[in-house]
Protein backbone atom coordinates (compact mmCIF):
# COMPACT_ATOMS: atom_id res chain seq x y z
CA UNK A 1 0.00 0.00 0.00
CA UNK A 2 1.12 3.52 -0.74
CA UNK A 3 1.57 5.91 2.16
CA UNK A 4 1.06 9.66 2.00
CA UNK A 5 2.58 12.06 4.51
CA UNK A 6 0.34 15.05 3.97
CA UNK A 7 0.45 18.70 4.99
CA UNK A 8 4.24 18.87 5.40
CA UNK A 9 6.71 21.73 5.46
CA UNK A 10 9.42 20.07 3.39
CA UNK A 11 13.13 20.82 3.08
CA UNK A 12 13.73 18.76 -0.05
CA UNK A 13 17.47 19.28 -0.40
CA UNK A 14 16.75 21.48 -3.41
CA UNK A 15 14.13 23.91 -2.15
CA UNK A 16 11.64 24.61 0.62
CA UNK A 17 8.02 23.56 0.06
CA UNK A 18 5.03 24.57 2.17
CA UNK A 19 1.77 22.61 2.30
CA UNK A 20 3.05 19.65 0.33
CA UNK A 21 2.71 15.91 0.66
CA UNK A 22 4.95 13.02 -0.23
CA UNK A 23 3.85 9.65 -1.56
CA UNK A 24 5.89 6.63 -0.44
CA UNK A 25 5.84 3.13 -1.90
CA UNK A 26 8.20 0.17 -1.42
CA UNK A 27 10.65 2.24 0.60
CA UNK A 28 11.05 4.92 -2.06
CA UNK A 29 9.57 8.36 -2.59
CA UNK A 30 7.07 8.06 -5.41
CA UNK A 31 6.21 11.74 -5.70
CA UNK A 32 6.08 15.11 -3.95
CA UNK A 33 2.79 16.92 -4.59
CA UNK A 34 0.81 19.94 -3.35
CA UNK A 35 -1.26 19.21 -0.24
CA UNK A 36 -4.51 20.00 -2.07
CA UNK A 37 -3.96 17.16 -4.56
CA UNK A 38 -6.43 14.32 -4.26
CA UNK A 39 -5.02 11.17 -2.65
CA UNK A 40 -5.48 7.85 -4.43
CA UNK A 41 -8.01 5.60 -2.72
CA UNK A 42 -5.48 2.87 -1.96
CA UNK A 43 -3.31 5.11 0.23
CA UNK A 44 -2.79 5.42 3.96
CA UNK A 45 -2.82 9.17 4.62
CA UNK A 46 -1.02 10.60 7.65
CA UNK A 47 -1.58 14.26 8.48
CA UNK A 48 1.74 15.81 9.52
CA UNK A 49 0.06 19.06 10.66
CA UNK A 50 2.61 21.31 9.01
CA UNK A 51 5.64 19.69 10.68
CA UNK A 52 9.10 20.00 9.13
CA UNK A 53 10.16 17.08 6.95
CA UNK A 54 13.90 16.73 6.21
CA UNK A 55 15.98 14.09 4.44
CA UNK A 56 17.43 11.57 6.90
CA UNK A 57 20.77 12.73 8.29
CA UNK A 58 23.95 11.26 6.78
CA UNK A 59 26.94 11.28 9.14
CA UNK A 60 30.29 10.57 7.49
CA UNK A 61 32.34 10.47 10.71
CA UNK A 62 31.09 8.34 13.60
CA UNK A 63 33.64 6.90 16.02
CA UNK A 64 31.11 5.37 18.37
CA UNK A 65 27.68 5.43 19.88
CA UNK A 66 25.82 3.98 22.82
CA UNK A 67 28.43 2.06 24.78
CA UNK A 68 30.57 1.17 21.76
CA UNK A 69 33.68 2.70 20.19
CA UNK A 70 34.31 1.06 16.82
CA UNK A 71 38.11 0.95 16.89
CA UNK A 72 37.94 -0.59 20.36
CA UNK A 73 35.39 -3.24 19.35
CA UNK A 74 35.58 -4.02 15.64
CA UNK A 75 32.41 -6.06 15.26
CA UNK A 76 28.95 -6.07 13.71
CA UNK A 77 27.53 -5.96 17.21
CA UNK A 78 29.29 -2.67 17.87
CA UNK A 79 28.08 -1.24 14.56
CA UNK A 80 24.51 -2.19 15.45
CA UNK A 81 24.74 -0.42 18.82
CA UNK A 82 26.24 2.66 17.16
CA UNK A 83 23.54 2.75 14.50
CA UNK A 84 20.66 2.41 16.93
CA UNK A 85 22.03 5.11 19.22
CA UNK A 86 22.47 7.62 16.38
CA UNK A 87 19.17 6.66 14.75
CA UNK A 88 17.41 8.04 17.82
CA UNK A 89 18.67 11.48 16.76
CA UNK A 90 17.83 11.33 13.06
CA UNK A 91 20.93 9.73 11.53
CA UNK A 92 19.67 7.18 9.01
CA UNK A 93 22.94 6.46 7.15
CA UNK A 94 26.51 6.66 8.40
CA UNK A 95 30.15 5.69 8.06
CA UNK A 96 31.56 3.85 11.08
CA UNK A 97 34.97 5.44 11.53
CA UNK A 98 38.17 3.57 12.32
CA UNK A 99 40.92 5.74 13.76
CA UNK A 100 44.67 5.10 13.53
CA UNK A 101 45.41 1.47 14.32
CA UNK A 102 47.32 -1.57 13.08
CA UNK A 103 47.09 -2.94 9.55
CA UNK A 104 45.48 -6.09 10.93
CA UNK A 105 42.72 -4.07 12.56
CA UNK A 106 42.15 -2.09 9.38
CA UNK A 107 41.73 -5.26 7.31
CA UNK A 108 39.48 -6.81 9.95
CA UNK A 109 37.31 -3.69 10.04
CA UNK A 110 36.97 -3.78 6.26
CA UNK A 111 35.64 -7.34 6.46
CA UNK A 112 33.18 -6.45 9.23
CA UNK A 113 31.82 -3.45 7.34
CA UNK A 114 31.65 -5.46 4.12
CA UNK A 115 29.31 -7.91 5.86
CA UNK A 116 27.10 -5.02 6.96
CA UNK A 117 27.02 -3.68 3.41
CA UNK A 118 26.14 -7.06 1.93
CA UNK A 119 23.27 -7.44 4.40
CA UNK A 120 22.14 -3.83 3.91
CA UNK A 121 22.33 -3.61 7.68
CA UNK A 122 22.43 -0.79 10.20
CA UNK A 123 22.42 2.11 7.75
CA UNK A 124 26.05 1.45 6.86
CA UNK A 125 27.27 3.16 3.69
CA UNK A 126 30.85 1.97 4.12
CA UNK A 127 33.72 2.95 6.39
CA UNK A 128 35.72 6.09 7.07
CA UNK A 129 39.38 5.24 7.69
CA UNK A 130 40.78 8.16 9.69
CA UNK A 131 44.50 7.53 9.72
CA UNK A 132 47.07 6.20 10.26
CA UNK A 133 49.09 8.29 7.76
CA UNK A 134 49.17 11.54 9.71
CA UNK A 135 51.56 14.31 10.61
CA UNK A 136 52.66 13.62 14.17
CA UNK A 137 52.44 17.35 14.94
CA UNK A 138 48.69 17.17 14.30
CA UNK A 139 47.96 13.72 15.69
CA UNK A 140 45.28 15.02 18.04
CA UNK A 141 43.95 12.11 20.11
CA UNK A 142 45.33 9.38 17.84
CA UNK A 143 47.74 7.00 19.52
CA UNK A 144 51.31 7.84 18.39
CA UNK A 145 52.48 4.23 18.07
CA UNK A 146 50.06 3.66 15.18
CA UNK A 147 50.86 6.81 13.21
CA UNK A 148 53.22 5.94 10.39
CA UNK A 149 54.56 6.88 6.98
CA UNK A 150 52.63 5.53 3.98
CA UNK A 151 54.14 2.44 2.37
CA UNK A 152 53.05 1.22 -1.05
CA UNK A 153 52.80 -2.43 0.00
CA UNK A 154 50.50 -1.66 2.92
CA UNK A 155 48.38 0.70 0.84
CA UNK A 156 47.91 -1.98 -1.81
CA UNK A 157 46.80 -4.50 0.81
CA UNK A 158 44.26 -2.04 2.18
CA UNK A 159 43.00 -1.25 -1.31
CA UNK A 160 42.64 -4.93 -2.17
CA UNK A 161 40.45 -5.64 0.86
CA UNK A 162 38.78 -2.26 1.27
CA UNK A 163 38.20 -0.91 -2.22
CA UNK A 164 34.40 -1.27 -2.03
CA UNK A 165 34.27 -0.70 1.72
CA UNK A 166 36.38 2.36 2.56
CA UNK A 167 34.45 5.36 1.30
CA UNK A 168 36.67 8.02 2.87
CA UNK A 169 40.30 7.88 3.97
CA UNK A 170 41.76 10.80 5.91
CA UNK A 171 45.48 11.44 5.43
CA UNK A 172 48.09 14.15 5.88
CA UNK A 173 48.83 14.84 2.20
CA UNK A 174 52.29 16.26 2.86
CA UNK A 175 53.37 12.74 3.88
CA UNK A 176 52.60 11.32 0.42
CA UNK A 177 54.44 11.30 -2.88
CA UNK A 178 52.37 12.20 -5.92
CA UNK A 179 52.21 8.55 -7.00
CA UNK A 180 51.02 7.25 -3.62
CA UNK A 181 48.44 10.01 -3.31
CA UNK A 182 47.11 9.21 -6.78
CA UNK A 183 46.91 5.55 -5.77
CA UNK A 184 44.50 6.49 -3.00
CA UNK A 185 42.56 9.01 -5.09
CA UNK A 186 41.94 6.35 -7.72
CA UNK A 187 40.24 4.12 -5.15
CA UNK A 188 38.69 6.25 -2.40
CA UNK A 189 37.37 9.67 -1.50
CA UNK A 190 40.55 11.10 0.01
CA UNK A 191 40.28 13.74 2.72
CA UNK A 192 43.00 15.97 4.14
CA UNK A 193 43.21 15.99 7.92
CA UNK A 194 45.54 15.71 10.90
CA UNK A 195 47.86 17.63 8.63
CA UNK A 196 50.39 20.41 8.98
CA UNK A 197 50.45 21.05 5.24
CA UNK A 198 51.47 24.43 3.94
CA UNK A 199 49.13 26.23 1.57
CA UNK A 200 51.18 25.04 -1.42
CA UNK A 201 51.25 21.44 -0.19
CA UNK A 202 47.50 21.48 0.32
CA UNK A 203 46.84 23.01 -3.11
CA UNK A 204 49.02 20.32 -4.67
CA UNK A 205 46.95 17.67 -2.90
CA UNK A 206 43.67 19.17 -4.13
CA UNK A 207 45.06 19.30 -7.66
CA UNK A 208 45.93 15.60 -7.37
CA UNK A 209 42.35 14.76 -6.47
CA UNK A 210 41.77 15.19 -2.74
CA UNK A 211 38.16 16.38 -2.57
CA UNK A 212 37.49 16.87 1.14
CA UNK A 213 38.92 18.04 4.46
CA UNK A 214 38.22 16.31 7.79
CA UNK A 215 36.75 18.23 10.75
CA UNK A 216 37.58 21.68 9.41
CA UNK A 217 39.78 23.82 11.71
CA UNK A 218 40.63 20.89 13.99
CA UNK A 219 44.01 19.11 13.79
CA UNK A 220 45.21 21.03 10.75
CA UNK A 221 47.45 23.96 9.84
CA UNK A 222 45.55 27.18 10.45
CA UNK A 223 45.00 30.29 8.39
CA UNK A 224 46.94 33.47 8.90
CA UNK A 225 47.85 36.35 6.64
CA UNK A 226 51.30 35.06 5.64
CA UNK A 227 50.75 31.31 5.90
CA UNK A 228 47.24 30.34 4.80
CA UNK A 229 47.82 26.66 5.60
CA UNK A 230 45.35 23.86 4.93
CA UNK A 231 42.43 25.97 6.14
CA UNK A 232 43.29 28.76 3.70
CA UNK A 233 43.77 26.31 0.84
CA UNK A 234 40.36 24.80 1.56
CA UNK A 235 38.73 28.22 1.47
CA UNK A 236 40.51 28.89 -1.81
CA UNK A 237 39.13 25.75 -3.52
CA UNK A 238 35.51 26.06 -4.57
CA UNK A 239 35.00 22.35 -5.33
CA UNK A 240 36.44 20.79 -2.15
CA UNK A 241 34.04 19.54 0.54
CA UNK A 242 34.58 19.97 4.25
CA UNK A 243 33.08 18.30 7.29
CA UNK A 244 32.69 20.41 10.43
CA UNK A 245 31.78 19.67 14.06
CA UNK A 246 29.20 22.23 15.18
CA UNK A 247 29.19 21.79 18.95
CA UNK A 248 30.53 25.20 19.97
CA UNK A 249 33.69 23.60 21.38
CA UNK A 250 35.56 22.12 18.43
CA UNK A 251 34.65 25.29 16.53
CA UNK A 252 33.29 28.57 17.80
CA UNK A 253 29.93 29.32 16.22
CA UNK A 254 31.39 32.48 14.66
CA UNK A 255 34.01 30.32 12.92
CA UNK A 256 31.26 28.08 11.56
CA UNK A 257 29.40 31.14 10.30
CA UNK A 258 32.51 32.44 8.53
CA UNK A 259 33.27 29.04 7.01
CA UNK A 260 29.73 28.72 5.75
CA UNK A 261 29.86 32.17 4.18
CA UNK A 262 32.93 31.08 2.21
CA UNK A 263 31.99 27.47 1.45
CA UNK A 264 28.20 27.31 1.23
CA UNK A 265 27.30 24.26 -0.83
CA UNK A 266 30.38 22.31 0.21
CA UNK A 267 30.36 22.53 4.02
CA UNK A 268 28.54 19.70 5.77
CA UNK A 269 27.92 18.47 9.29
CA UNK A 270 29.60 15.55 11.05
CA UNK A 271 29.20 14.46 14.65
CA UNK A 272 32.68 12.93 15.04
CA UNK A 273 30.96 11.31 18.00
CA UNK A 274 32.93 9.12 20.34
CA UNK A 275 29.73 8.30 22.20
CA UNK A 276 26.16 9.49 21.94
CA UNK A 277 23.09 8.38 23.91
CA UNK A 278 25.33 7.16 26.71
CA UNK A 279 26.77 8.97 29.73
CA UNK A 280 30.30 7.57 29.44
CA UNK A 281 32.55 9.44 31.87
CA UNK A 282 35.86 7.94 30.77
CA UNK A 283 37.33 4.97 28.98
CA UNK A 284 40.75 3.54 28.24
CA UNK A 285 41.74 2.88 24.67
CA UNK A 286 45.05 1.72 23.19
CA UNK A 287 46.97 2.62 26.31
CA UNK A 288 45.62 6.09 27.00
CA UNK A 289 42.56 7.38 28.77
CA UNK A 290 39.83 9.63 27.44
CA UNK A 291 37.68 11.69 29.79
CA UNK A 292 34.29 13.27 29.23
CA UNK A 293 34.49 16.93 30.23
CA UNK A 294 31.40 18.99 29.53
CA UNK A 295 30.12 16.63 26.87
CA UNK A 296 33.37 16.34 24.92
CA UNK A 297 36.17 13.81 25.21
CA UNK A 298 39.76 14.77 25.98
CA UNK A 299 43.04 12.91 26.30
CA UNK A 300 45.09 13.27 29.47
CA UNK A 301 47.22 15.78 27.54
CA UNK A 302 44.14 17.92 26.96
CA UNK A 303 43.59 17.16 23.27
CA UNK A 304 40.01 16.98 22.05
CA UNK A 305 39.14 13.37 21.21
CA UNK A 306 35.77 13.57 19.55
CA UNK A 307 32.40 14.86 20.61
CA UNK A 308 29.31 13.39 22.17
CA UNK A 309 26.88 15.39 20.04
CA UNK A 310 24.40 13.96 17.59
CA UNK A 311 23.62 15.23 14.12
CA UNK A 312 20.38 16.61 15.57
CA UNK A 313 22.44 18.69 18.02
CA UNK A 314 24.52 19.98 15.13
CA UNK A 315 21.41 20.86 13.13
CA UNK A 316 19.92 22.79 16.05
CA UNK A 317 23.19 24.58 16.73
CA UNK A 318 23.45 25.68 13.11
CA UNK A 319 19.94 27.13 13.13
CA UNK A 320 19.83 28.57 16.65
CA UNK A 321 23.46 29.60 17.29
CA UNK A 322 25.04 30.07 13.87
CA UNK A 323 21.99 31.58 12.15
CA UNK A 324 21.80 29.35 9.08
CA UNK A 325 18.35 28.67 7.62
CA UNK A 326 16.81 25.25 8.23
CA UNK A 327 16.57 24.77 4.47
CA UNK A 328 20.35 25.09 4.14
CA UNK A 329 21.08 23.12 7.30
CA UNK A 330 19.03 20.21 5.95
CA UNK A 331 21.40 20.15 2.99
CA UNK A 332 24.42 20.31 5.30
CA UNK A 333 23.11 17.31 7.23
CA UNK A 334 22.19 15.15 4.25
CA UNK A 335 22.40 16.52 0.71
CA UNK A 336 26.03 17.62 0.73
CA UNK A 337 27.34 14.47 2.48
CA UNK A 338 25.54 12.39 -0.15
CA UNK A 339 27.16 14.46 -2.89
CA UNK A 340 30.57 14.03 -1.29
CA UNK A 341 30.18 10.24 -1.37
CA UNK A 342 28.72 10.20 -4.87
CA UNK A 343 25.36 8.76 -3.75
CA UNK A 344 23.40 11.93 -4.50
CA UNK A 345 21.01 10.18 -6.90
CA UNK A 346 19.66 7.91 -4.18
CA UNK A 347 20.10 9.64 -0.82
CA UNK A 348 20.03 13.15 0.59
CA UNK A 349 16.88 14.58 -0.97
CA UNK A 350 13.12 14.34 -0.68
CA UNK A 351 12.42 13.73 -4.32
CA UNK A 352 10.76 11.14 -6.55
CA UNK A 353 12.96 8.05 -6.87
CA UNK A 354 14.96 8.63 -3.68
CA UNK A 355 15.11 6.32 -0.69
CA UNK A 356 12.44 7.39 1.81
CA UNK A 357 14.77 8.19 4.73
CA UNK A 358 13.12 11.07 6.56
CA UNK A 359 13.30 13.12 9.74
CA UNK A 360 10.25 14.85 11.22
CA UNK A 361 10.81 17.93 13.40
CA UNK A 362 8.29 20.13 15.17
CA UNK A 363 8.36 23.91 14.99
CA UNK A 364 10.85 24.04 17.88
CA UNK A 365 13.21 21.62 16.11
CA UNK A 366 12.35 18.79 18.46
CA UNK A 367 12.57 15.37 16.85
CA UNK A 368 9.17 13.74 16.41
CA UNK A 369 10.01 10.70 14.32
CA UNK A 370 12.56 9.01 12.09
CA UNK A 371 11.56 7.11 8.96
CA UNK A 372 13.86 4.63 7.21
CA UNK A 373 12.88 3.30 3.79
CA UNK A 374 9.33 4.45 4.37
CA UNK A 375 8.89 2.85 7.80
CA UNK A 376 8.74 4.78 11.04
CA UNK A 377 11.51 3.38 13.24
CA UNK A 378 11.73 6.04 15.95
CA UNK A 379 8.84 8.04 17.40
CA UNK A 380 8.79 10.67 20.12
CA UNK A 381 5.23 11.81 19.50
CA UNK A 382 2.22 10.35 21.19
CA UNK A 383 0.30 9.73 17.99
CA UNK A 384 0.09 10.96 14.41
CA UNK A 385 -3.42 11.74 13.35
CA UNK A 386 -4.72 9.36 10.70
CA UNK A 387 -6.74 11.33 8.15
TrEMBL record:
The UniProt record lists the keyword Oxidoreductase: no
Keyword Hydrolase: yes
Superkingdom assignment: Bacteria
GO molecular function, one term: N-acetylglucosamine-6-phosphate deacetylase activity
GO terms, biological process: N-acetylglucosamine catabolic process
Matching SUPFAM superfamilies: Composite domain of metallo-dependent hydrolases, Metallo-dependent hydrolases
Pfam families xrefs: Amidohydro_1
Residues given in the record as Zn(2+) binding sites: 130, 194, 215
UniProt keywords, alphabetically: Carbohydrate metabolism, Hydrolase, Metal-binding
Location of the active site: 272 (proton donor/acceptor)
Binding site for substrate: 141, 218-219, 226, 250, 304-306
Cofactor note: Binds 1 divalent metal cation per subunit.
Cofactor(s) listed: a divalent metal cation
Matching Gene3D superfamilies: Metal-dependent hydrolases (3.20.20.140), Urease, subunit C, domain 1 (2.30.40.10)
CDD domains assigned: NagA
Record-annotated Amidohydrolase-related domain positions: 52-377
InterPro entries reported for this sequence: Amidohydro-rel, GlcNAc_6-P_deAcase, Metal-dep_hydrolase_composite, Metal_Hydrolase
Family designation: Belongs to the metallo-dependent hydrolases superfamily. NagA family.
Name by which UniProt lists this protein: N-acetylglucosamine 6-phosphate deacetylase
Amino acid sequence: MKKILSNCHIMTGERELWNHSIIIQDGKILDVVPYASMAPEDCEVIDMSGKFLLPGFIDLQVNGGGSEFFTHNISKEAVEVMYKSHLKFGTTRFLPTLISTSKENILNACNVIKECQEENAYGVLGMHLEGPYFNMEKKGAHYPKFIREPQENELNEIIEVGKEVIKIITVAPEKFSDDLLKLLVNNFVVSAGHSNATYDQAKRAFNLGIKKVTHLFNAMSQFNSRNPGLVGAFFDEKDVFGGIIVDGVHCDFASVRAAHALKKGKLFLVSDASFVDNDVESFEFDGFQLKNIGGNFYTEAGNLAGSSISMLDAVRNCVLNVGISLEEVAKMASTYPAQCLGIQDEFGKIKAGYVADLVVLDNNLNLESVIVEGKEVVSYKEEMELA
